[in-house]
Each structure stands twice: as structure tokens, then as C-alpha cells.
Amino acid sequence: MNTLQDALNEEHFYICLKPEKVNGKWLGGIEITALVSDNHGLEPSELEEVLHVLHMICASVPLYETDKDVRDKAYKLVEKAFEETEPDAEYLFGDAYEEEESDTSPQLTYKGNVVKVDFGVKN
């Protein structure tokens, strides 16, 4: 039987999302954690570049909270990706989407290298 550890590739960099739950119910928040193996096989300068991209991806979450336009564009890109039927569709480079008004902003709290994101969803 394979464990999660067996499935993880040492050369990969992971962003893990952990739903915040109480009594098995999701409270609408998540914790974001980056996992990096010591056996990544990169030179120090290469590692620095990859970590920079990793941190930029993680930084997109607080950016979504502070910049409604960026959040709405990202939301629409993801929404359109799910609607695409072509497996090779380049939806990320398209400009055919409509922005909608949204008044929901996730709340972020930080503790060390963990970012907790609360989308305000109540079950």
C-alpha cells in the first residue's frame, strides 16, 4: 500500500490547502502551507528562482483580497477553464470574459509560514 509520502516526488514543490473544520464541518477558512523537499536536486540559484515563483503563487491569495479586479479576473479564468471542452484550450491567454460584481472578500490571517484564508462560507 502506498502512503502519501510514497506518492510525493522529491523534485516537486507543493502547496497544501487544509480546510478549517469544527466537528467535521468546514468553516470557510483554509490554511496554505508550502512543502519543499531537501532533495529537490536544484542548485542554490535555481532553488531561489523556483521558491520565488512558489511564493508568488502563495502571495496571490492575499492579492485577491486587496485587489478585487485581480480576484475577479482569476475567478473568471477558473470558471472559464471548467467550461472549456477542448483539452488544449489556452483559456489563460484569452480575453473573452465578463467581470461580475462581487462583494465577498476572503479574510487572511498569518502564523509563521501558514496563511489562513476565511471565505466566510457558513454551513
Describe this structure in words.
With 123 residues, this protein is an alpha+beta fold. The chain has one domain (4-89, 105-118). It is built from 3 helices and 4 strands; from the N terminus they run H-E-E-H-H-E-E. It has helices spanning 4-7, 44-66, 68-83, and strands at residues 13-22, 25-36, 107-111, 114-118. A hairpin with a 2-residue loop joins strand 3 and strand 4 (114-118). Helix 2 (44-66) crosses helix 3. The model is unreliable at 95-99 (pLDDT under 50).
Strand count, sense and barrel status of the largest sheet are: 4 strands, antiparallel
Query: Could you list the spans in which at least 5 consecutive residues all have pLDDT below 50?
Result: 95-99
Tally of helical segments:
3
Give the % helix. 25-40%
Query: How do the strands of the widest beta sheet line up side by side?
Result: 1-2-4-3
Gap between N and C termini, in Å?
A: 35 Å
Shape: globular
Radius of gyration, Cα only, in angstroms? Answer: 17 Å
Give the number of domains. 1
Q: How is the topology of this model organized?
A:
Layout: H1 4-7, E1 13-22, E2 25-36, H2 44-66, H3 68-83, E3 107-111, E4 114-118
Antiparallel strand pairs: 1-2, 2-4, 3-4
Question: What does this entry show, briefly?
Answer:
The protein has 123 residues and is of the alpha+beta class. Helices cover 35% and strands 26% of the residues. It has helices spanning 4-7, 44-66, 68-83, and strands at residues 13-22, 25-36, 107-111, 114-118.
